[in-house]
Amino acid sequence: MSAANPQTDQQTHHRPGERPVSQTEAALLEQVCEALHEATPLQIQGGNSKHFLGRKTQGEVLDITAHQGVVSYDPTELVITVRAGTSMQQLETLLAEQGQILGCEPPHLGDNATVGGMVATGLSGPRRPWSGSVRDFVLGTKVITGHGKLLRFGGEVMKNVAGYDLSRLMAGSFGCLGILTEVSMKVLPKPRNEYHLSIPCNQAEALQKLSLWGQQPLPITAACHYQEQLYLRLEGGEASVKNFADSLQGQEIDPEFWTQLREQQLAFFQDSRPLWRLSLPANAPQLNLEGDSLIDWGGAQRWLKTDQPEAALREAAENAGGHATCYTPDITDQPLHPLQPLLIRYHQQLKAQLDPKGIFNPGRMYSDY
């Protein structure tokens, strides 16, 4: 099966053997070339569902939402290629019709979320520790670089590694390295059997259980501790799911819980205090921090609602082997965790290679990047 772009989009001339450059893609390229000529910063914008992440940027808006549609989709090969302005709802609806899902379970955080925004922010949902991150599912990309060129990296098959690392670098780059116009991703079959349950326990007990279970081949694909309950999603073969569920003797829950967790719709996220995300090793111990916490990713992602100072939070995260990111706007001038000097240099060198004039989302991640 191959799905065509739902929009009537005229094509420009292209070389034999290459996919045609669409009219909207050509318009984006033209806007970039004009910005390069005038040295005008560009503020890259999709559905704006994640605009609150990172630092505020200034510049001429470059909107990718008109560049949408499915380029190709072969369910038997578990690969789909879509334009960056395609809505996440459209993509996931199409996959669901074929009994398939995005393995990284990315959050939308709004009705207008786009595929480009998914890759640019690199955010993954509850399934991430068991299936992989957004970066792990990207096979190839088309990118407009800071040299005014439209380049293709990677491919559409898992064996093709040419340029693969550069495609993966786009995940989590917040648009600072180039403008995504097209993304090829691998997808997964929807699990055949699933069970959702909760068992009562405190946070320390939950972390202990998760550490023990993490060493065993169990059918867990999501694990969250919240309000003195350990929530689990079990997926896989019927026998393995049923046997493990029976051994836990938990209470069955509505599977919608995982969507509410992914989309930050649980009551925990409505608290008016600043929201921090601590990314830690899965076996990190319980942190002695003020405020209310929610554990996701089997212990590797800790959400914290607190008024505690930024320095204390980041020191605690670093001491535990991780980092802390602020999800509430205007709380700090540095929402992303500060980098060590060597990493800063690598970031700057990469930026200089791909965006030498620094026009793409300048300062979105760090003040000098």
How are the secondary structure elements laid out?
Blueprint: H1 23-38, E1 42-45, E2 60-63, E3 70-74, E4 79-83, H2 88-97, E5 100-101, H3 115-121, H4 128-131, H5 134-137, E6 138-144, E7 150-154, H6 164-169, E8 179-186, E9 188-189, E10 193-200, H7 203-213, E11 220-226, E12 229-236, H8 238-248, E13 251-252, H9 256-262, E14 275-279, E15 292-296, E16 301-305, H10 310-319, E17 323-326, H11 341-354
Parallel strand pairs: 1-2
Antiparallel strand pairs: 3-4, 4-8, 5-9, 6-7, 6-8, 10-12, 10-13, 11-12, 14-16, 14-17, 15-16
In short:
This protein has 11 helices and 17 strands. With 369 residues, the chain is α+β, with helices and mostly antiparallel strands.
Instruction: Find the CATH topology of the largest domain.
Output: Uridine Diphospho-n-acetylenolpyruvylglucosamine Reductase, domain 3
User: How large is the count of helical segments?
Assistant: 11
The helical percent reads 25-40%
Average residue-wise pLDDT: 91
Instruction: Please list the strands of the largest sheet in the order they lie side by side.
Output: 3-4-8-6-7
CATH architectural label of the largest domain = 2-Layer Sandwich
What oligomeric state do these chains adopt?
single chain
Order of helices and strands: HEEEEHEHHHEEHEEEHEEHEHEEEHEH
Shape descriptor reads: globular
Overall radius of gyration: 21 Å
Overall structural domain count: 2
Query: By helix and strand content, what is the structural category?
Result: alpha+beta
| Ends apart, CA distance between termini | 42 Å
